[in-house]
Amino acid sequence: MKSDLNRMLDERYTNIGLCDWTTMSIDIKNVIGKLCKLLNLIYQTNLKPEYFRLSKFNKTDENVVSVLWNLLFKMLNKNNILEVKGTLADLKYTRKQFYFNTTEHCGSRELLLAISFILCLCLNSQLEKHLEVSVFSENYFFDITSIENISLDFDKLNEEELQNFKKWIEGKISSNENMIYEYSHQITQMYNKLNNNLCVKANGSLTIFELLALNNQSCTEHFINNSEPVLHQLNAYTEWLKHEKIFWKWMESVLYEERKV
Description:
The chain has helices at 4-16, 21-43, 49-56, 64-76, 81-90, 96-100, 108-132, 159-175, 180-198, 208-215, 217-260. It is mainly alpha-helical. It folds into 2 domains: 4-134 and 232-260, no CATH class; 144-206, no CATH class. The chain contains 11 helices and no strands.
């Protein structure tokens, strides 16, 4: 019976098609470099292709074991080895060799195989989580009361009333934390007024914050600064998707090295 990793690799080949072995031999280092760039952006690590080569042959040079454990901690959002193993067990990862390693000084190849398993299952969802809290999300929260002058032509909002309303909310928050709920509710109402004034719905092609970024300098700077990280991640992910078939075929050679032992 095939292992879960073998089965997932087979499914990966079916979904993305087989690659040219000649192309793979030329491009594998470049492709792993693209993967390292993507993982470094998402998980704030310092991976390099050499770690993958070393782990293929189960080496421990360049502190590779510690580096890969650190990546596993971040990928699964766990703090220690036992938690990582527990989470992988919940994900139905069944390689016994991985669970038999009781210390950080286990073989680097087993860590690479576990990382590849997580890549198959969780990479897309991790990127989606980053997008959900980014400036591109319609749920992104920006404190509109911090904007002194919004360069929009308000037909339905009186500036004096708006300023008084802001001061009233800020005073309530400083005196009573229970007013935070009311504050959020009132801010939502202000967003709705902005939408009505602009004749744009909140679920339209542009979010409210994107509209503000188009019309206010401070919002524009905030949007640019906070959009760059997720844009870099998406660009790296796009490059990875173009070439990932070469990596998954290379992973077959990693399993072959294990069977040679």
